[in-house]
From TrEMBL:
Protein name per its UniProtKB record: Succinate-semialdehyde dehydrogenase, mitochondrial
PANTHER family: SUCCINATE-SEMIALDEHYDE DEHYDROGENASE, MITOCHONDRIAL
BP terms from Gene Ontology: gamma-aminobutyric acid catabolic process
One MF term in the entry's GO annotations: succinate-semialdehyde dehydrogenase (NAD+) activity
Name of the gene encoding the protein in the UniProt record: Aldh5a1
InterPro entries with a match to the protein in the record: Ald_DH/histidinol_DH, Ald_DH_C, Ald_DH_CS_CYS, Ald_DH_N, Aldehyde_DH_dom, Aldehyde_DH_Superfamily
Source species, domain of life: Eukaryota
Pathway membership: Amino-acid degradation; 4-aminobutanoate degradation
Domain Aldehyde dehydrogenase: 2-334
Organism expressing this protein natively: Anhinga rufa (African darter)
Length: 334
């Protein structure tokens, strides 16, 4: 397809996402659990990538570089690399696809998307809209799989010689495995891996503003984003006041429940394994002297619902300050 045709297809895909934003958001909430309001926000965020790359598709410019010899001319041509394997996470099951696929299609590449095993429906829904937008068959491909088959499918995508590029967002541990697989055929690789973000509060801080920022930074999507704060470092002069106000804000403003309930701010965690990791981090911290200020256990709703939790008396020897929790746990270090 010409750049103009690729641009038109991406633009139409964007328009269809906006037209179907409510249905797409409900799919995210149903399979991921995040509150519907957050899911609606994700869909518009997702669509914006297609809108952006629809315009960028027209501007894949080359370059002319001055040569060191007068009888030489250096030209740079930008060409599609070929098939791109797109491996995406469950926490943003729509946005993490469009931000990668939009760029690939704008450049003229075809893609094979392997969505997270917990959230395949968003990827398939995007595929249906891609078809309606006139994206040719075989350009946007989705390969859902079970948790048991995920490792094998990932290995095939990273080792098959027909795949030229890997783009992965997910855990650091999985990223390391995919990098090893991709090394055999020296594929181009882009990795967006786990985080361990600190939230630092000095004595000079405005406590109320710090608490508001902490609440938003920690508990978005029930703590299941790669940019969520994972540990709080609070200077001793302001520590007690911060912890007290943070606990009150958690209890006052966060509401655990179904993502389809308008009052809900905290949906369920993605699966039982995620719940067990939060429990393991809390148990480890408490066993070493940490105190549970609020929360600390599974919610009365059961299954994958967990209480937003705040820990104090935390040290850097505890798991929750060494590993990414990826859940509604806020450990505070004085």
């Amino acid at each position: 397809l010409s750049p103009q045709e690729r641009s038109a297809g991406l633009r139409r895909w964007y328009e269809l996402m906006v037209e179907n934003k409510e249905e797409l958001a409900r799919i995210i909430t149903a399979e991921n659990g995040k509150p519907l309001k957050e899911a609606q926000g994700e869909i518009l965020y997702s669509a914006s990538f297609l809108e952006w790359f629809a315009e960028e598709a027209r501007r894949v410019y080359g370059d002319v570089i001055p040569a060191s010899a007068k009888d030489r001319r250096i030209l740079v041509l930008k060409q599609p690399v070929g098939v791109a394997a797109i491996i995406t996470p469950w926490n943003f099951p729509s946005a993490m696809i469009t931000r990668k696929v939009g760029a690939a299609l704008a450049a003229g590449c075809t893609v094979v998307v392997k969505p997270a095993e917990d959230t395949p429906l968003s990827a398939l829904a995007l595929g249906e809209l891609a078809n309606q937008a006139g994206i040719p068959a075989g350009v946007y491909n989705v390969v859902p799989c079970s948790r048991q088959q995920a490792a094998a499918v990932g290995e095939v995508l990273c080792t098959d010689p027909l795949v030229a590029k890997i783009s992965f967002t997910g855990s650091t541990a999985t990223g390391k495995i995919l990098l090893k697989h991709a090394a055999g055929t020296v594929k181009r690789v882009s990795m967006e891996l786990g985080g361990h973000a600190p939230f630092i509060v000095f004595d000079s801080a405005n406590v109320d503003r710090a608490v508001a920022g902490a609440l938003a930074s920690k508990y978005r999507n029930s703590g299941q984003t790669c940019v969520c704060t994972n540990r709080f470092l609070v200077q001793k002069g302001i520590h007690d006041q911060f912890v007290e106000k943070f606990a009150k804000a958690i209890e006052r403003e966060l509401h655990v429940g179904s993502g389809f309930d308008a009052k809900t701010t905290q949906g369920p965690l993605i699966n039982e394994k995620a719940v067990e990791k939060v429990e393991r981090h809390i148990h480890d911290a408490v066993s070493q002297g940490a105190s549970v200020v609020t929360g600390g256990k599974r919610h009365s709703l059961g299954k994958n619902f967990f209480e937003p939790t705040l820990l104090s008396n935390v040290t850097t020897k505890m798991l929750c300050t060494q590993e990414e929790t990826f859940g509604p746990l806020a450990p505070v270090i004085k």
